[in-house]
Amino acid sequence: MRKLIVLGVVGLLAQLVDGSLGMAYGVTSTTLLLTAGIAPATASAAVHLAEIGTTLASGAAHWRFGNVDWKVVGRIAVPGAIGAFAGATVLSSIATDAAAPWMSGILLALGVYILLRFTVRPPQDTGDRRPLRARFLAPLGAFAGFVDATGGGGWGPVATPALLASGRMEPRKIIGSVDTSEFLIATSASVGFLIGLGGSAIPFDIVATLLVGGLIAAPIAAWLVRVIPARMLGAAVGGLIVLTNLRTLFKSFGTPDDIRYVAYAAVSVAWAAAVAVALRAVLRSRAAEPAQVS
C-alpha cells in the first residue's frame, strides 16, 4: 500500500511538471520510477499506458481551444507511432542490467536539454507560416517516438523544440499538435510493450495509480503555472532529472566514490547557477512589465 501511495505521488508530481512546462511527464515519472526500483521496461510500459488517458484528455482540450494543426499531427504522429513501437520492442528485449544505463543515459540527456531550455532564451516565433513538409516531420516523428519509448519519455522534449526552431508555427499550435499526437505515440508504445513483455508483466496497479495521480494534479498544474514561472520550474526540474539519472549511471558502472562526489558537486553548482540565471531573467521580466504598461 505504501508503494502505491508513493507511485501516486510520482504520477502527481510528473503531471504537475508536464502541466506547467508543456513537456516532461514521461521523463519525470520514469526517472522517479527507476529511483523507486522499477525495472526500465516495466517503468516505460507503465508510464505509456497511463499516458493514454492523460494525452487523450490533453488532446481533446487542445482541439477544443483550436490549438491543433491536423496536417502536422497526421505527418508526425504516424511515423512517431512506428518509432515508438520499434523502441518498445527493442527495450522489451534488453536485459534489465543493460537497459538501466541506456535509459538513464537518454533521460540524463533530456534532463540537460530541459535545464538549458528553460535557462537560456527559448527559440523565437519568426512569423514564417510556410507549411512544414513531411520530409522534415516524418523523420522527426520517428526519432522522437523511438526515444520516447526506449527512454521512458522524450516525445515532447524532442519534437517541441524542433518545431519551435523552425519558426513556421505558432507556439500554441506546436504544443497542441505535439500533445495531441502523443496519444497515438503512447498507444503504439503500449502495444509494443504488451507484445514484448506480455500482459502479465505489466503492473496495472502502477498504471492506475500513475493515472489517478496525474488526473488529480491536472487542475493543480493549471493553477501552478500561474504562480511559479515556467522558467524557474524548468530549471529546477531539469537539474533534478540530471542529478538523479547521473546517480543511476554511476551505480550501473561502479564508478569510484571520489569521482562520483566530484561530479555531484559540479552538477549541483551548475544546477544552482542555472536556477539563479532563470530567477534573474524572471525578475528582470517582471521589472520591465510596469514600464511597458506605462
TrEMBL record:
It is found in: Cell membrane; Membrane. Its main location: membrane. The chain crosses the membrane at residues 29-51, 72-94, 100-120, 183-200, 206-225, 232-250, 262-283. The keyword Transmembrane applies. The keyword Acyltransferase does not apply. Keywords: Cell membrane, Membrane, Transmembrane, Transmembrane helix. Belongs to the 4-toluene sulfonate uptake permease (TSUP) (TC 2.A.102) family. This is Probable membrane transporter protein. It comes from Bailinhaonella thermotolerans.
